[in-house]
């Protein structure tokens, strides 16, 4: 399936893998498969961590100031944009900066209830006015709004419904401010219905994150393999089931997300 793919690494994953190793791996995969693969430094919360990823060769940065008051979020995001764009100019290449506006929680966990402070009530979600102000003042290339989405998945209930009308309103407001479309990013996509995904894409979402689904698939595959082969100790043999489960998720999601194209 020849469609663009974004691989995101969290701050924790970058500490485990190392930013230079992640860049080298993605570069090798691009050359080997002729595939459009972009490496994103996901949910980066400090300029120091932004610099680590940029200097290593990441293609995009999400600076996450979503839990901050909007004024402080704008100020810190502007600093990140200024730094990244200066590096982009010196390298004559494009490094994209994504900003986050609104609290959608954090962490890939199976939840029993909403995390404290997470925006779900309509009055707490990102408004089109705030989105337009944020993009205009920061100069970000992409925006991740709070539109009913949260990180993680619920154990015994469907995800809260996405606010499709809000997505469309934000998309329209950003076009009016910038004179060009600004891609909207849906974080915390895991657990949403296929119907909501397609509606969100049709309303203006360009990128969807599904980390928790993939991690849950990894664990499912590992648990099943351990049951089938309780005496196995070779890591590559134990991981085969996890990889197969993750492949199924990736294939089905890429197929769904590109259904409207």
From TrEMBL:
GO terms for biological process: carbohydrate metabolic process. Binds 2 Zn(2+) ions per subunit. One is catalytic and the other provides a structural contribution. Keywords: Metal-binding, Zinc. InterPro entries: Aldolase_TIM (IPR013785), Class_II_FBP_aldolase (IPR050246), FBA_II (IPR000771). Its cofactor is Zn(2+). Zn(2+) 1 binds at residues 43, 151, 187. GO terms for molecular function: aldehyde-lyase activity; zinc ion binding. Zn(2+) 2 binds at residues 64, 100. The active site is at 42 (proton donor). It holds the Pfam family F_bP_aldolase. This is Ketose-bisphosphate aldolase, class-II.
């Amino acid at each position: 399936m020849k469609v663009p793919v974004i691989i995101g690494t969290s701050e924790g994953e970058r500490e485990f893998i190392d930013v230079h190793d992640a860049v080298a791996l993605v570069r090798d995969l691009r050359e080997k498969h002729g595939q459009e693969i972009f490496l994103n430094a996901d949910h980066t919360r400090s300029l120091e961590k932004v610099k680590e990823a940029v200097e290593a060769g990441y293609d995009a940065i999400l600076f996450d100031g979503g839990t901050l008051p909007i004024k402080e979020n704008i100020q810190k995001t502007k600093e990140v944009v200024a730094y990244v764009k200066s590096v982009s100019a010196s390298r004559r290449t494009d490094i994209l900066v994504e900003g986050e506006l609104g609290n959608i929680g954090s962490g890939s966990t199976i939840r029993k209830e909403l995390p404290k402070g997470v925006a779900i009530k309509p009055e707490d979600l990102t408004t089109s006015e705030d989105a337009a102000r944020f993009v205009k003042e920061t100069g970000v290339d992409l925006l991740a709004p709070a539109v009913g989405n949260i990180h993680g998945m619920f154990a015994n209930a469907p995800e809260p419904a996405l606010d499709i009308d809000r997505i469309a309103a934000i998309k329209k407001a950003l076009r009016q401010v910038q004179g060009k479309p600004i891609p909207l990013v849906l974080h915390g996509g895991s657990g949403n219905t296929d119907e909501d995904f397609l509606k969100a894409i049709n309303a203006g979402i360009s990128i969807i994150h599904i980390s928790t689904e993939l991690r849950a698939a990894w664990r499912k595959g590992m648990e099943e393999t351990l049951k089938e082969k309780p005496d196995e100790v070779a890591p590559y043999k134990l991981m085969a089931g996890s990889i197969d489960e993750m492949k199924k998720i990736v294939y089905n999601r890429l197929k769904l997300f590109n259904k409207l194209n």
